[in-house]
Amino acid sequence: MKNENRQFRLAARPVGMVKRSDFEFTSTAVPEPGPGQVLVEVQYVSLDPAMRGWMNEGRSYIPPVAIGEVMRAGTAGRVAKSNNDRFAVGDYVAGWGGVQDFVISDGKDITKVDPRLAPLPVFLGTLGMPGMTAYFGLLEVGKPKAGETVVVSGAAGAVGTVVGQVAKIKGCRVVGIAGGPEKCRWLVEDLGFDAAIDYKSEDVNKALREHCPKGVDVYFDNVGGDILDAALARMARNGRIVICGAISQYNNTTPVKGPSNYLSLLVNRASMTGMVVMDYTEKFGEAVREMAGWMKAGKLKTREEIVEGLETFPETLLMLFKGENTGKLLIKVGDA
Amino acid sequence: MKNENRQFRLAARPVGMVKRSDFEFTSTAVPEPGPGQVLVEVQYVSLDPAMRGWMNEGRSYIPPVAIGEVMRAGTAGRVAKSNNDRFAVGDYVAGWGGVQDFVISDGKDITKVDPRLAPLPVFLGTLGMPGMTAYFGLLEVGKPKAGETVVVSGAAGAVGTVVGQVAKIKGCRVVGIAGGPEKCRWLVEDLGFDAAIDYKSEDVNKALREHCPKGVDVYFDNVGGDILDAALARMARNGRIVICGAISQYNNTTPVKGPSNYLSLLVNRASMTGMVVMDYTEKFGEAVREMAGWMKAGKLKTREEIVEGLETFPETLLMLFKGENTGKLLIKVGDA
After folding, report:
1. Do residues B262 and B142 share a domain?
2. Which of B159, B219, B271, B277 to mutate to test the interface with A (most CBs of A within 10 A)?
3. What are the start-end ranges of the E strands in chain A?
4. In angstroms, what separates the C-alpha of B228 from chain A's closest C-alpha?
């Protein structure tokens, strides 16, 4: 076992794009679990767009990370010591361990995961928060019906890949929006999307007209900005927009770009609804079982992009905002 | 009976604020009804913010008014000649007669109204399209529950006054946003709103914090722009925004201002949904009966601002966009 606990602590509230100096990279002794507690050795750290929002001050769906606090992050790891009857040494667990080598838990904020069901990284992706976000956002907010057209932005990301594949399983026509020809080819050829739009080289408005001749019934938005406006302009009567995120706006130093085309909601009797995955916690177990079944049946494919070394955290986080990852982005913590 | 038919025809698609030269004011012979037709003498012309949208080119919920066509408008009048068994001379009817003295109808696009139920102008206001818009937008889209906080903008207008009063009838706390101290006093003292915010002299963000301590459960938006953003910032968990109109944006020469605070939908799991009153046509009769009952019981007050003379049409229409009317704005057609 490692004999130190490296930690990334928030040092400053970022202005614009996150940078290494917004964190302090420190090291401390490995903590000892007290009565009822377990010591978890973090093996994988999840990188998620939402992390950018947690670094800002102000009211949101959860409190911001305080200056000096270990940066909040989803993690998967292994129980290294246990004073809790519910966990044995060697158990694999997922939770909110933060960007560090070790975390102490009272057992309430960690969940055992079964490594026979899927490799550990998948529990931070398709069978973790991003997968749950996709599943509940699409099915409970977007409510797609077979035969409808579903469009998803950030389509090659951890949430987008699941949204598109679940929509295909539900019998929808699926169009993904992603950056670059590689991602677009992968969405169509490997994941079975009906079409993919490369926003970096194509006119998204024109491409949506072409690929969604009957309009867009469900638009699952991970990006905001101009792409949200393009989707609004193509909404079908009674269409539903799921607001899951707005990665294009998170590092702005100017105000968020509001969707100029929002009056399309009126013209098309459409709706735009926000969702936060934590609201569905009670149903996660059921969703994981269904998604694992789809994975086993080959209907739901997962892909992880794994970067080695906890020390790479600030630069690895930036990959999200530069659109450099395909599938779920993770750090494999590795040795000190 | 008048011996000419004065008409306002659309002469140009307005750029920015509507002006008299966007219309042609012409006169023609009074038309003769053919078999199955009736001749309606228009007595009142309804002035509605939506008219500005109908003057623009492009896809919307109804086709635009064509250049050279009589300007579309809701009207109330009296059957002057009839070749249709369903209508007798002297019957009062409401419909889409347009900005003119006379209109020919086959009887399918006009509805008999009962002048004993309410004065004729009320059938263009509280018991007409604006009232129906308020009733169905609030109850079927906003779905307020007793005890919730409902905020309405354009609160002293034809739609807003009904939204606020119906919300009070349903047991809600009601806050209106309107322009000027007179309108605000009227909303609170005469219509029973719990509070009114004068957007011309108050900081709307601050006033909403004060008057909506538990947040806004339903926001009924008639105006868009900065006021929509202020309401978004105050939405309660699971709040609903009804997008009915955006009068602040209709005469823009720049793109519509999209709501910068739309990510409040995510944080608060809130929704923003567009509505068009025509979707509820089949239920109008039922709503009119219920609203007439409330009027009779003194729970629902109506107010009309009536300008004399068809010839005033372009300037009277502008009163809407300058916020000069209180209650339902109408033209009493008068003599040629």
Report:
1. yes
2. B271
3. 5-10, 23-28, 38-46, 75-82, 92-95, 102-105, 110-112, 149-153, 173-178, 195-198, 216-221, 235-243, 271-274, 304-308, 328-332
4. 11
- Measure CA of the first residue to CA of the last residue in chain A; give whole Å: 10
pLDDT of residue B98 exceeding 80, the answer is yes
* Residue-level pLDDT at B1: 79
Task: Look up residue B112 and give its two tokens.
Answer: 């008999």
Distance CA B335, CA A314 (A): 77
Nearest 5°: phi and psi at A308?
-85, 135
Residue B289 lies in a domain: no
Residues B204 and B236 in one domain: yes
Contact present, A99 and A7 (Cβ < 8 Å)? yes
Residue B295: inside a domain: no
Residue A336 scores a pLDDT above 80: no
pLDDT at position A335 over 90: no
Under an 8 A CB cutoff, do A263 and B61 touch?
no
A82 and A164 fall within a common domain: no
Instruction: Give me the DSSP letters along A196-229.
Output: EEETTTS-HHHHHHHH-TT-EEEEEESS-HHHHH
Residues of A in contact with B231 (CB under 8 A): none
Dist CA B46 CA B76 (whole Å): 8
Q: Does A111 share its domain with A166?
A: no
Of chain B, the percentage scoring pLDDT greater than 70 comes to: 100
The phi, psi pair for A33, rounded to 5°, reads: -70, 135
For the domain that residue B226 is a member of, what is the CATH number?
A: 3.40.50.720
> What are the b/e assignments for B215-243, b being 16+ CB within 10 Å?
bbbbbbbbbbbbbbbbbbbbbbeebbbbb
**Closest by Cβ to A262, choosing from B258, B264, B269:** B258
Q: Do A266 and B243 touch (CB under 8 A)?
A: yes
Count structural domains, chain B: 2
pLDDT tens-digit readout, B160-192: 999 999 999 999 999 999 999 999 999 999 999
The angle, 0 to 180 degrees and rounded to 10, between the axes of the packed helices B158-169 and B129-136 is: 40
Question: Do B85 and B226 sit in the same domain of this protein?
Answer: no
What amino acid is encoded at A58 in this protein?
A: G
- Alpha carbon of A33: minimum distance to chain B alpha carbons (Å): 35
Tell me the residue type at B24: E
B249 closest CA partner among B201, B317, B327, B321: B321
Contact call for B224 and A263, based on CB within 8 A: yes
pTM (two decimals): 0.94
Q: Six-digit token pair at A69? A: 């606090």
In a domain, B95, yes or no: yes
Of residues A325, A287, A336, A262, the one with CA closest to residue A49:
A325
Q: Would you report the helix, strand and coil content of chain B in percent, each value rounded to 5?
A: 30, 25, 40
Q: How far apart are the first and last CA of chain B?
A: 10
d(CA B293, CA A239): 35
Tell me the one-letter amino acid at B62: I
pLDDT digits (tens, 9 = 90+) for A278-325: 999 999 999 999 999 999 999 999 999 999 999 999 999 999 999 999
Whether residues B136 and B120 share a domain: the answer is no
Residues A326, A229 within the same domain: no
Where in the sequence is the domain holding A120, given as residue range(s)?
A: 5-125+303-332
Residue B216 lies in a domain: yes
Give the list of residues 6+ apart from residue A220 with CB closer than 8 angstroms, or none.
A134, A137, A138, A142, A150, A151, A152, A153, A160, A163, A241, A242, A244
